Amino acid sequence: MAARARTIADALGAAWQPVAEVALSVRRSLRLLRWLHVALVVVVAAGWTSHRPTLIAGSSGVGTALLVWPWLHGRSWRAVVERWHTKRWFASRWESLAGQVGLSVHRPAKAPGGKAATVVPKLVRVSVSGPVVRLRVRLPAGLTVADVERAAPRLAVATNVPRVLVDPDGHAGARLTLTVRDLLGHPFASTVPDPYGVDVSRAPKAVPVGRVEDGSPWMVPVGPSALVAGASGSGKGSVLWGLVLALGPWVKGGSVRLHGIDLKGGMELLLGRDLFSTVATTPEDAVALLEWLAEGCVGRTHGLAGLVRSHTPTVAAPLHLLVVDELAAVTAYLSDRQLRDRADRALSVLLSQGRAPGFVVWAFLQDPRKDVVPQRGLFQITIGLRLRDTSEVAMVFGDGALADLAPCHRITRHAQGTGYVLPEEGGNPVRVRAGYTDDATISVAAAMFATPVRQEVPTPAPDDRDDPVTTSVRTRSERSPRAPRQPRAPRTRTSSWAELSDTADTQVLADHAEGDGQGVRS
Predict the structure, then answer these.
(1) Segment 451-481, tens digit of pLDDT
(2) Angle, alpha carbons 355-357-363 (nearest 5°)
(3) Does the residue 79 lie in any domain?
(4) Which residues span the domain enclosing 27?
């Protein structure tokens, strides 16, 4: 009976929720209309008393339009009502909220018998943009931006919002960004770009992969290398294929070449094999591909030295983007130590030197420990999906304090593709979600944007397999034979101890004889 009653209560609650939302919207609309029409009545009265018929007619027309607006275009009207209500709510309750969350300074009485005062940050401005509310406050003496950051979780609970971010605003101010609605709560499908709607003659600066928490497109920069960390089933494939599909028009045009490493037998990348110029599915091929790209990176840097500081992708000199599915399989899980060392050296060259000449690495992994990914600090962009605990969040983002700003360990299993991005230019992590890409979409996109250049993994020459990748261009020519060593000069015979003693005695006697003939000198 209890379970049945609970089920009935849940059903009634789910049915009542949309009714309550409509009732709340109507209530807020009537409240706004009441204030607007009160203002119009004042204007009409002023026009009546001043004998201005045009003012009266204009006010009457505006009042009629306000009455008709909710029926003609309800969506825009609801947006105006929500914006007005949000601003009014924060403006009327800010002092109380600031005091409740600890953002206050106690001022003692200035004179005996006077009253003490409690000062809170002054609310300067409230702006609403979609689901995001931004508050600008002026801090009183005794409060800092760090105090506001510590109070952000309490403010999120007090205002019933998912997230509050704090940024400094000048020397004595702070900007608070509150996400009042979660637009990333429901999954959405990724979109395949229009092959004729993209100008492939221009190099891609950033491509859309998903959405940001404010509803805007998540634009991922193409130039920097990125590390994507997440547990199994967190949605790393959504980020991977979102990036690959977004670059499809440039792949087909030839100015971008994709390379892949998938040591799981190619289960992830071979579904879209036509998009990739090369795909390595064995440890030997993976290391060979890394070294080949590292040599190409070094060669291009030497060719561009003294000409430009940043490479512009063209069909003749394309952008090379390497996608590594499960990076730990290349850097830590290889049983052959020699292969592992070669892979580390080549990957370090690509990450440290590849951005300017157009060699980019996008690596995906589950275990973000330092001994698994020694090059973790060389990635310019870090993306954290669902992780197991706060220690892994600190490993990914490099700062334990970011566990509160980027709680990747609190992302649910049903929110695949949801994560936090640490911007390259710094600042607070941004909450994002990548669109879901099914197998049929991948197959269609691979046929639509097939690369014109497809080749096998280059195999290094036998003499170069043991040579480390260096920062200089290596030639494949045979080494010249080493010159024969010259014979050493014969060593001089060392005198015996007796001979050295006789020589010393003879020298001492000679010195005494010379001194007796010359006398003592002062």
Answers:
(1) 999 888 877 655 554 454 544 434 344 455 6
(2) 40
(3) no
(4) 18-72
